[in-house]
Amino acid sequence: MAVHRPARIPAARRGGAGGGVEHVDVVVVGGGSAGSVVAGRLVEAGASSVLVLEAGGPVHPWDVEVRMPLGMYRAVGDARYDWKYVGEEEPWLFRRRINHPRGKALGGSSAINGMLYQRGHAADYDGWAAMTGDPSWDYSHLVPYFQRVEAATARSAGPTRGRGGAHVLTQDPAAGPLHEAFFAAARQAGHPVSSDPNEVQDGVGRFEKAQSHGRRTTAADAYLTKHLGGQRSGRGRSPLRVQCHALVTRVVVEGGRAVGVRYRVSDGRSAGPEREVRAGEVVLAAGAFATPQLMLLSGIGPRDELEAAGVEVVHHLPGVGRDLQDHLGAFVQHRSSRPVGANGIKGRPQLLSAAARWLALGSGPGASTHIEAGGFLRTTPDALAPDATVFFSSLVWPVAGMPVVEGHGYQLYAYPGRVTSRGSVTLRSTDPAAAPVIRNNYLSTDSDRQAWVRVLRTVRELLSQPAFEPFDGGEVVPGTHVVTDEEILSFVQRTARTGLHPTSTARMGVDDAAVLDPATLGVHGLPGLRVVDASAIPLMPNGNSYAPVMVLAEKAADLISGAAAPAPVRVPEAARAVPGSLPLLPDGRLADVPADAADGPPGVSGGSLAS
Ligand SMILES: Cc1cc2nc3c(=O)[nH]c(=O)nc-3n(C[C@H](O)[C@H](O)[C@H](O)COP(=O)(O)OP(=O)(O)OC[C@H]3O[C@@H](n4cnc5c(N)ncnc54)[C@H](O)[C@@H]3O)c2cc1C
Fold it and tell me: Which of 248, 290, 300, 528 has its CA 20 to 30 A from that of 432?
């Protein structure tokens, strides 16, 4: 285990305003998923003043779109809760511009996400340790932190799972004939069916969600709310203060140290005057797009880029905004020959009735996103670990530009788990309210294009098993005319969308492009500033990104408070790939992927498969 230099929480210099400048122990920028964990845990560790500055608003119990799981399909794209970022033209996706939802609310993306909780494979974290040269980021060392996140309620939860952690996790029922067919088909196709895919991430199973009694639980609900009593009632002094509608505009650096931030509090009509807060520690937790943007706005980043944008260089750090990773997801959809799916709830009267039932009883179709089963598949027999993630559902929404599944249907949404394409986040403007420039360069590497073809073939193989025969009304998307590798790739290029997991734009590591010290999550060469959110992740796991962000934030809280690290936990052999065998990228590479890598200029067709 690496030895971490404990960072003592300095005593609060003074609460409240002093000459217009407030002083706190720790200011956390972004009350999202990671920000909620860090702030809540630091209060529990004895910090005497923690200020969370969140650009979005609070989430109320009556915000049905957020609280009701089915409401997710409305919360995403609603400017009250979503930043609604839009990427640049993607050269390998026929120059399509991809929408990038991100939560803008207390709880951040956990207020609009699919609530799916997926730890990721042991080998993913062993990859983090290998990349950073810091064994304390390997899976065994992180399991105790996962346990702090998890209050797993499923009886089938495995022995390394947490039951007393902060987040109640509820296992989906995944019941009914189509789910039964899905599990049977997975077995027929040779994939294991797992009783707890978070214990052993291999094969498919019932999903776990960050929801309780049919309601979404955000990271803020799980980590912050309990510390806000004083602030809410005005009685007593809580060490935690949360300021919503506060857009942080820059990090203040003096004498080579981050000493605070500037921010504006909006009243809904205007942005308000700029204020300053001074802090012993500044923690950036604004997410994989806004954190690098804020660093760049503060003059922390690649010198050339800052100079070109007209920003004074405060700290040259070439990796800021580089190495953007994301999953790229697409659908295979079938018509169902029997009326057994969830499509029956899509009509307006049915949705209203689902909402009414949910409001009255907390149950019924409103209490689910209807993405209740799926898991982790190998797309080649020789894969060391599962290399694709799939999501089964009988609630089938149209895919733009493709034929629509009429009546009932079922689908697998899928993505290759470990991608080698790298993108970037850069400044569009020095206005902190302007969205940054997001370039993903999806499918820009040959290995990613090959991986997608394998994923689609694997998904089709699963859906064509005998278990689905009683229901199969034919493949609608992409359609049986899509056969060759080139046709499959073209379908993906035309229809794929973000997997919603941007990471690594200020990643930890010890190489020249690394931004954070893995031992502290402090910014290399700039004391007083840390990054704790999806930006810090060195390599995106095969699986969704919420649990990885939460585990990173749990560990970060220990690093900041100086608490001793918990002892590593022995991991079941079945959870490992081949013990000690790394790396796991499809082409065998781990860390040598150049930023913005592309195998060559895309042709008119938008790209090709190397032979
Ligand atoms: C629609 C959607 C569905 C998803 N589904 C799943 C899923 O089912 N399972 C899963 O594992 N993952 C899912 N994800 C991904 C997962 O939710 C994210 O990876 C994770 O929540 C990111 O956490 P974070 O702390 O890095 O950022 P966030 O949780 O996004 O938090 C960042 C916070 O910073 C705030 N902020 C930004 N800029 C500023 C500023 N300048 N000043 C002040 N505050 C600022 C934001 O408003 C936000 O609250 C989904 C994501 C989305 C968007």
Answer: 528
In a 10 Å sphere around its CB, with 0-12 CB exposed, 13-18 middle and 19+ buried, how is residue 607 labelled?
buried
CA neighbor of 528 nearest in space, from 323, 319, 315: 315
Averaged pLDDT for residues 301-312 = 98
Q: What Å distances lie between residue 411 and 313, 326, 425, 488, 579, CA to CA?
A: 49, 22, 32, 17, 34
Element (H, E) at 33: helix 33-44
Residue 601 clears pLDDT 80, i.e. is over it: no
| CA neighbor of 560 nearest in space, from 28, 32, 125 | 28
443 closest CA partner among 412, 421, 469: 421
> 33-44 and 546-561 are packed helices; what angle lies between their axes, rounded to 10 degrees?
30
User: Quick check: 147 and 130 in contact, CB under 8 A?
Assistant: no
Question: What does the H/E/C string look like for 79-133?
Answer: CCCECCEEEEEECCCCCEEEEECCECECCHHHHCCCCECCCCCHHHHHHHHHHHC
How many C-beta atoms lie closer than 10 Å to residue 119's C-beta? 28
Kindly tell me if the per-residue pLDDT of 5 is higher than 90: no
User: Rounded to the nearest whole angstrom, what is the distance from the C-alpha of residue 329 to the centroid of ligand 1?
Assistant: 18
The separation between CA 161 and the C-alpha centre of its own chain, rounded to angstroms, equals: 20
User: Of the residues 179, 191, 501, 524, which is catalytic?
Assistant: 501
3-state secondary structure of 67: helix
Catalytic residue status for 501: yes
Question: Dihedral of the CA atoms 533, 536, 542, 547 (nearest 10)?
Answer: -30
Q: CA-to-CA distance for 590 and 285, rounded, in angstroms? A: 26
Q: Give the residue-averaged pLDDT of 471-482.
A: 98
Alpha helix segments (H runs only) across 464-513 = 485-495
Residue 579 has pLDDT above 50, yes or no: no
Cα separation, 144 vs 567, in Å, equals 8
Asked whether 410 and 392 are in contact (CB, 8 A), the reply is yes
pTM equals: 0.93
In this structure, are residues 49 and 25 in contact, taking their beta carbons and an 8 Å threshold?
yes
Determine the Cα–Cα distance for residues 545 and 122; give it in Å rounded to an integer. 14
pLDDT digits (tens, 9 = 90+) for 21-31: 899 999 999 99
Residues 354/356/358/362 CA torsion (nearest 10 deg): -150
Q: Has residue 511 got a pLDDT over 50?
A: yes
What is the sign, positive or negative, of the torsion defined by CA atoms of 289, 91, 445, 296? Answer: negative
Which of 33, 150, 217, 276 is the best mutation target for the ligand 1 pocket, counting ligand atoms within 8 Å of the beta carbon and taking the most? 33
Q: How many CB atoms lie within 10 A of CB 165?
A: 19
Nearest residue to 598 via CA among 440, 414, 418: 440
Band (10; pLDDT cuts 50, 70, 90): very low
Please state, in angstroms and rounded to a whole number, the distance separating the CA atoms of residues 408 and 525.
57
Q: Which two tokens stand for residue 17?
A: 């305003």
Enumerate residues lining ligand 1, CB below 6 A.
Answer: 29-35, 53-56, 76, 101-104, 108-110, 112-116, 118, 246-248, 285-288, 290, 294, 500-501, 533-534, 544-547, 549
Q: How far apart are the first and last CA of the chain?
A: 44
- With beta carbons less than 8 A apart as the criterion, state whether 427 and 439 touch: no
Ligand 1 centroid – CA 476 distance (Å): 32
Predicted local confidence at residue 268, as pLDDT: 84
User: Which pLDDT belongs to residue 230?
Assistant: 59
The residue whose two tokens read 């007593």 is 236
